[in-house]
Amino acid sequence: MRQLKGIPVNLRGNIIGKITRDVTAKKEKNIILVAKSVDRDTRGFRAILCEAKIDEIKVKQIRTPMVHSVHNIEDLSEGDVVKVDMESGDIIVVYEIKSIHNSIIASTVCNCRCIMCPQALADDSPESLKSNLEIIQLIDKDTPAIGITGGEPTLLGDRLIRLLEECQKRLPKTQIQMLTNGILLSNLEYVKKIVRLRMNNLLFCIPLYADIDREHDFIMQRNRAFEDTILGLYNLAARKQLVEIRIVVMSLNYRRLVRIAEFIYRNLPFVIHVAFMGLEVEGQARKYIQRLWASPVEYAPFLREAVIHLSRRNIDVSIYNEQLCLMPREIWSFMRKSISEWKNTYLEKCRWCKVKNDCAGLFAHPTDEHKCLVKPF
Questions:
Q1: Strand 344-345 vs strand 47-50: parallel, antiparallel, or unpaired?
Q2: How far is residue 70's CA from residue 9's CA, in Å, rounded to a whole number?
Q3: Percent over 70 (pLDDT), the chain
Q4: Contacts from 187-193 at CB under 8 Å and sequence distance 24+?
Q5: β-strand pairing of 7-9 with 14-20
Q6: In DSSP terms, which residues pair with 34 in a beta bridge?
Q7: How far is Cα 17 from Cα 47, in angstroms, rounded to an integer?
Q8: What is the rounded CA–CA span in Å between residue 229 and residue 328?
Q9: What fold is seen in the domain 103-373?
Q10: What is the pLDDT of residues 293-323, one digit of tens each?
Q11: Which CATH fold topology does 3-95 show?
């Protein structure tokens, strides 16, 4: 998530609110004013984020919770939702109104330790549900899609049900994309609780890293992960839930991509979409990069065959996080601009590339080997 920083004054704790630059805006309880400087009465706003440095005398006069001396404040847009840490001055953008890649971190704990996971996992916060409910209430109702991610969201149990209820109430037209490993969905009673919500816009995005249990379990770093995930998928299918399969491509599985595609076609024909995803080198993935790294040029032929295999069998398929210059033209039509804006980058040599506007670009910290492979058109 995009993050800014400044100097906090007049309060301790956290504040969640929606951004405005209009000093005459209706003073709702969760509106945060963004300003170059503060030279008028701003009472009624939840907080103020200010680019200029404010001296101690003026701070005492204002009294409203404030973070001043904020760098890159122009990155904030009208309608964004932020979480402000009034201890550290950190400003985390939890929802960007101009982005199509917004997500809610439902939990920071997980029941797996996937060898290629890009997330930094930690102990869950007891306040996370309360904070997330506040965030959902502030999200623009016309948002096309929101991800619910983690950690592992299903570890929340009934708290996840509460989160989904709020999404259904506040965001009835928004597609809710729940990223889950599917393991706890092997519990049929829990699946029934979710199904009772009757959310026609809920999509379960579930990873499948191999077509056999040994390989999938090793990548997930959990025994029986494959068995429980497949059972969870069948539980969802039996209750007509929307399911997407996600496959992160790495050295451990790229030679099996066609077999994975065939497994999906034969055993999971109910899925509405399959996404092949380039590796994000953060978290666990960075720790084990020497073991995980495979050149996109090396695995491109396997990826091409797997994608075409599914497409010819009328299964909707996409490729995320890959660069056009490293993939065969035959599968360019399946490639999507999928990397969140705040961690998306292009190399200097991409500046004059003729197809840059159609390319996904790279994650913010690509490996040196990856950067050397990129060859602009």
A1: unpaired
A2: 12
A3: 95
A4: 188/235, 190/154, 190/157, 191/232, 191/235, 191/236, 191/239, 191/241, 192/239, 193/158, 193/161
A5: unpaired
A6: 49
A7: 8
A8: 32
A9: TIM Barrel (3.20.20)
A10: 999 999 999 999 999 999 999 999 999 999 9
A11: Glucose Oxidase; domain 1 (3.50.30)
Q: What residues does each domain of the chain span? A: 3-95, 103-373
Q: How far apart are CA 60 and CA 51, in angstroms?
A: 18
Q: What is the mean pLDDT of the chain?
A: 93
By residue count, the chain amounts to 377
Contact 319, 331 (CB under 8 A): yes
pLDDT tens digits, 209-268: 999 999 999 999 999 999 999 999 999 999 999 999 999 999 999 999 999 999 999 999
Contacts of 377 (CB under 8 A, 6+ apart): 324, 325, 353, 354, 355
Q: What are the backbone dihedrals phi and psi of residue 84, each rounded to the nearest 5 degrees, phi first?
A: -110, 125
Which of these, 322, 330, 374, 327, lies nearest to 353 by C-alpha position?
A: 374
User: How far apart (Å, rounded) are the C-alpha atoms in residues 279 and 108?
Assistant: 20
CA nearest to 86, candidates 145, 6, 23, 190: 6
Contact criterion met (CB below 8 Å) for 64 and 10:
yes
Of 75, 60, 105, 62, the closest CA to residue 6 belongs to 75
